[in-house]
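Hi U.,

Before I forget, here's the chain from the pilot set. I'm dumping it here mostly so it's searchable later in email.
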Amino acid sequence: MSRALALLAALGALLLAGCGQMDSMRLEFVAMRYMQEAEGHATGIPRNSARAIEELDRAVALMPDDAELQRRAARLYTIARAWDRAIPLFEAQDELGSQDRLVYAQCLLAAGRTDAGATICLETIDQVMKQREGARTTHPEWALLLNDAGYILADADSNVDRAWEAISIAVETMPLQAAFVDSLGWAAYRRGDLNDAAFYLERARRHSPYDDPEMLYHLGVVYGRVGRFGDATEVLEEAHKLAPDWDAIRKELRRIGRIFPPPALATASAEAGVA
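Structure:
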């Protein structure tokens, strides 16, 4: 048992000891409430990953033997970028479905277990490619797998050309799917094709029915790399409003700020230089 799981189990024991009169139905009700709160914090607007993790910790501690709750918690931990908590929950499951295997691969790559994570994504792409070849078409569920596997690889800057190929097929199959187009733009960025990246990421934003912090982050990064610092600052600040505790957005804003300081700061610096 990992240290994280051991701590969660201990927390669960303490909670149960203090609530000895709770029956199993009450316990399940409280755990489900924690899960609902966690999902709202992890996926709502604005997102609050720290609160989501706190609520998930409570739910997992209350019902450590509930396989479905643990499976759901693993996915939400991943959305909250709590890779160290998600990985043992995935590994404790008897079998992972196709989508959960990819989410697990994302956690492995983010945690530095690059070979293991990349292998799962590449195996998924190879399997779907064979199925697609036999059927001579691409079913929507296959397109989803190709997009997800490709995006996870591209985001980790691993096997980028293979990721681009997989995502391209997904976009050909569902060209109006904003998430797929965003993935293609991010893969183009990883390939160093900055103009293509900006084109696809702008297109993804137009196709999306709402602003998504991850899409805005991608667009802001690319704007910054092509020298559109004002546009980069604008979209990154909007992303920060939607996901205020996502550190990558803050880091990119700081980087852009050093290159393109706010007008007041730039004016003050210029005046100081003249003086």
